[in-house]
Write the structure tokens for this entry.
Amino acid sequence: MTALIRWLGMLVLACFAQAATAADPAALYGQHCAACHGADRLGGMGPALLPESLERLRDSELDTVLRDGRAATQMPAFGATLAPPDLHGLARWLRSAPADAPQWSADAIRASHVVTHAPGTLPARPAFSADPQNLFVVVEAGSHHMTVLDGDRLAPVHRFATRFALHGGPKFSRDGRYVYMASRDGWVSKYDLWNLAYVAEIRVGINTRNVAVSDDGRWVLAGNTLPRTLVLLHAEDLSVARVIDVRGRNGDASRVSAVYDAAPRHSFIAALKDIAEVWEIPYADAAGRPLASLAPRAIVLDDVLDDFFFDQPYRHILGASRGGGGQVIDLDQRRKVASLALGGMPHLGSGITWQRDGREVMASPDLGQGRITVIDMQDWHTVTTVPTNGPGFFLRSHERTPYAWADAMMSPRRDTLQVIDKQSLRVVGSVTPSPGRTAAHVEFTRDGRYALVSLMERDGAIVIYDAATLQEVKRIPMDKPIGKYNVFNKTTRSAGTSH
Ligand code: DHE
């Protein structure tokens, strides 16, 4: 017994000694991290290190990055320099908010602006022979790169480094020449796909959701969660036009969930995360004549919209309400016009539409249950729910294929995509690119003949299937490919994919 007490005492003393010797994490940050991640933790050569920026990294992953570094990046391993208690203390400290709320003012945005190629200085024709309309860009999240793929030869044309953690669909100019990307830590980049060169970059926020590009090619709108702003940029060179504070009619500030271009309406739509409003920002009148002032108009709702889908004419929003269920909002009438009988966690943002029995239907996956919900777009009733292998993130199709492809990436069957017949609404096939490894997100070639699937692993690949026979045609190795985007399908706003 005495020996046990003595042993326990020594253990307590050892722990105490260890805790006592753990260095001050703020000082460790200043010594080892600030040079790359900024003294204010807002990022520099490395990404921002704030609780919001680290939200998506599990504690164990953060510990591993600090200890072992990040392969193929400048992030060094600190395992040999810092003792485990110091590393642990530093990781915990990074999860705490700074005493002063981080600011990112209009001046800071302007100061970050870089123009690599001034407008009009690069040739206005592609520097390669591939069909520029059938290019894909693939976001490789592993080492933060983008690959440009030729959709006819099904082979890479070019690969280049991007900002840290791109998210949301990159957006194309209407002619497909430029692609605009947003990184989670606020960088917006404009890249010339014909000349394979960056044109301009600017940091619009500390935490950014995504960007939208106006159909007339004049504007880029970025939505932030930190600070709570929308930032309007001139598309030509990404210079700042306006910073818009996002505040509801009662003065409450809100994070932005996402911004979209409603091309047929000549307006941007901003979805707000914290207040029961949707904003429409017209940039041209009904005849397409540019408007001088881009003023947001709020549509006041009964409930905050969590995730939503636009019909093809962008007349209606189908949204999941925070309080449960769903609602249809008519953007012309500026009010709710119907309820949707939605259960579970529908991922409406990933919805697609097609014609079935002469009626337009919309379908979306569910983040909580293995099912695809199919909704009639005329009277908004639920046509059916198609059971799948498990909860999934994306649903994709193309006008020229009879099938819709659904993943189950949030389930044990994350390695398999199921193929659903768009008329019978039954699962008619499946593909498993690599057993046990995550496969999701499909995009079709311009002609709908091939389906490109992401094998979302560090030693992953784009796996290409014949969209009719479901036979694998080819795989192209990539570093954790996430989304891929076909210029033609996006710029023509194909009903089978996101816009
Ligand atoms: Fe996304 C698009 C929101 C997590 C990969 N994601 C979008 C869009 C929104 C959104 C609003 C539409 C933007 C657009 O059109 O530009 N995503 C969210 C979230 O709220 C969520 C759940 C949590 C978060 O941290 O933001 C989330 N998203 C993820 C992921 O974990 C994914 C799988 C991997 C990653 O890289 O972060 C992921 N999101 C994607 C992709 C798209 C996307 C690939 C573009 C799909 C497309 O085909 O257009």
In short: Confidence is low (pLDDT under 50) at residues 7-20. The longest strand covers residues 219-226. Residues 2-94 form a domain with the Cytochrome Bc1 Complex; Chain D, domain 2 fold (CATH 1.10.760.10). The chain is about 15% helix and 35% strand.
